[in-house]
Design a protein that fits this description.
With 315 residues, this protein is of the alpha+beta class. It is built from six helices and 19 strands.
Length: 315
């Protein structure tokens, strides 16, 4: 058996409305201000930062992850404030971020350790390329670089929600899936891809299986992706709860060469759904994520999503 040289952790976390306390006149963020509906003040903001940091550090026994993808951050500044928290500030992360066209002003971002990952480029893929209707949502982020001799492509996603109905909004997620599929197809065969995000669809939905070609088992000789999330859906586990049902919207997928093991020695075996008890609220036999708010009632929790992560192992 070959010895393990290194193990790197890559996390995705939808942090649910990580807003600063200031009104941005360009977006609909009025509720998250001191005088707004949520009474979002400096104390609550600082508590939110501490809670998210605590959730992240709980993934690997207090060790800061090597890579993190985020959804629902308002801007770069809130991410910088998060990375200043105890346990994260010592890592000196680099940030990849861009303001999105989301009407509420929520963005995605990627952070990485520059001592681990040699950054080459970031590409923001416009999901409107594959849509006949204008979609004001997050583009697909691709971050490319190298770990040792291996080229890695990380893709961060936050696809459109089902708020107006699953069927009524499906075209938006299909447009995002087509965009991501096209971006993955441009990657060199010897490179590896790690796709993470809040897809607002589950592993078995058409946007994932048909349009993205992310499956439980990928076929050799194709660019099908291995969806490491599949086993959780099969066992009825999820990353977000709605009306008593858990849904697995937060997923991580990888290229087949990374699942089987690359010639350079890198391998990812499975995705983990972080289920730390502090992140879950239990009452009367039911459970749901321990949220910051329930409606407009402040609870001081973490997020309405659970984080997911993979261990990237070098042998």
């Amino acid at each position: 058996m070959s010895a393990l040289k290194r193990e790197l952790i890559a996390v995705f976390y939808n942090v649910e409305n990580l807003f600063d306390v200031y009104d941005d006149p360009k977006t609909s963020d009025d509720a998250f201000t001191p005088d707004g509906l949520m009474a979002w003040d400096e104390e609550r903001y600082r508590q939110k930062l501490q809670q998210i940091s605590k959730a992240i550090l709980g993934i690997d026994q207090g060790k800061a992850p090597d890579f993190m993808g985020f959804a629902e951050i308002e801007n770069r500044q809130v991410l910088e404030d998060l990375l200043k928290q105890d346990g994260l500030s010592e890592t000196h992360y680099e940030i990849v971020h861009q303001e999105s066209e989301d009407t509420r002003g929520i963005d995605i971002a990627f952070v990485y350790r520059p001592d681990v990952f040699k950054f080459n480029e970031a590409i923001w893929h416009d999901i409107n390329t594959f849509s006949t209707e204008k979609i004001n949502a997050r583009n697909v982020l691709q971050v490319s670089g190298e770990i040792g001799d291996q080229v890695f492509h990380f893709f961060v996603n936050h696809w459109s929600s089902r708020r107006k109905g699953k069927a009524e909004t499906e075209f938006k997620r299909i447009a995002a899936a087509k965009t991501l599929r096209h971006a993955v197809d441009q990657c060199a065969d010897e490179s590896v891809q790690i796709i993470m995000g809040d897809f607002n669809d589950e592993p078995s939905d058409f946007s994932i299986t048909k349009y993205l070609s992310a499956l439980e088992h990928a076929q050799e000789g194709t660019k099908e992706l291995v969806n490491l999330s599949w086993r959780y859906e099969q066992h009825g586990k999820g990353s977000i709860e709605h009306e008593g049902e858990w849904y697995l919207f937060d997923q991580i997928m990888v290229s087949l060469n990374l699942r089987k093991g690359t010639p350079t020695g890198w391998k990812v075996k499975k995705m983990y759904l972080e289920q730390n008890e502090a992140l879950i609220f239990r009452s009367r036999g039911s459970s749901k994520p321990n949220r910051t708010y329930v409606g407009i009632d402040y609870k001081g929790g973490f997020s309405d999503h659970l984080p997911v992560f993979v261990r990237i192992q070098e042998r």
